Amino acid sequence: MVAMASASGSALRFTDPPSSRAIRRDVGAFCLAPRTVTFGFVDKSITNLGQLRLLSSLKTRASNATAVENANAADSDKVPTPVVIIDQDSDPDATVVEVTFGDRLGALLDTMNALKNLGLNVVKANVYLDSSGKHNKFAITKADSGRKVEDPELLEAIRLTVINNMLEFHPESSSQLAMGAAFGVLPPTELVDVDIATQVSIKDDGPDRSLLYIETADRPGLLVELVKIISDISVAVESGEFDTEGLLAKVKFHVSYRNKALIKPLQQVLANSLRYFLRRPSTDESSF
Question: 9: exposed, middle or buried (C-beta count within 10 Å: 0-12, 13-18, 19+)?
Fold first, then answer.
């Protein structure tokens, strides 16, 4: 889950720390100076999303194409679904990243090094196996403060960095990832903008917050864009989860308005705003 709050429950802080400049320089994903928007009850900064672009290092790797094309064609049906989970709820002191790709992943040392280049420390790592494959799990904190990540730009940079490394070291994963359509050697067989509909639902989760669930086609920058839409109607994102499951993005956010659960009219406004933004390719009108 992508928790957008500190352990004390404060809303996500949209600031422009020194690390943001490093992200824009080294990652290339966030290009413009931040502008101030109202997010819940606090003024926060968020990057103009009009020119948000994918990591500059995400590109088609022609050198891998031959190896993939020479692979046994029958193996294409056996490619597992890549899963990248950004979880801020399970650990109050760290951001937890979980990566699964069947049993094909190694120790992910290159991924951990790439995360360190974003100004992050991997404070704990473990691996476990279940029926879905091998799960690599990292607990991450910011190197300069030792705290969990609260900046949505940095959270999205973490997600894209993990996917970037998966595309580089496991090019066959591109057939199972939305970003493989533009940056992989084997594009997905499903058309992301045609075959995947959007679902949005909101329900109360106690008296002080509501649970927002979104399922939609994945794309670069989606996490930051969703947080901006929610903030534009003065709803605070307190915590959440952002899962990349193959072509899908599955999002669960705990949201509130002035420290209370969203009333039904505000739930409808939020759902309609998200449906309008995520209307590619179609949105299930009964999903609210």
Answer: middle
Residue with tokens 């998966």: 166
CA nearest to 173, candidates 55, 162, 212, 92: 162
Rounded to whole angstroms, how far apart are CA atoms 217 and 244? 9
- So what's the pLDDT on residue 214? 97
H/E stretch holding 123 reads strand 120-130
Q: Above 50 in pLDDT, residue 229?
A: yes
How far is the C-alpha of 94 from the C-alpha of 83, rounded, in Å?
A: 20
The two structure tokens encoding residue 39: 């997010």
CA gap 211, 89 in Å, rounded: 13
Fold of 192-279: Alpha-Beta Plaits (3.30.70)
The proportion of the chain whose per-residue pLDDT surpasses 90, expressed as a percent, equals 54
Residue 192 CA to chain centroid, in angstroms? 17
**Whether pTM exceeds 0.90:** no
- Which tokens sit at 271? 């759902």
Q: CA 1, 37, 288, 210 torsion: positive or negative?
A: positive
What residue spans define the domains of the chain? 18-50+80-183, 192-279
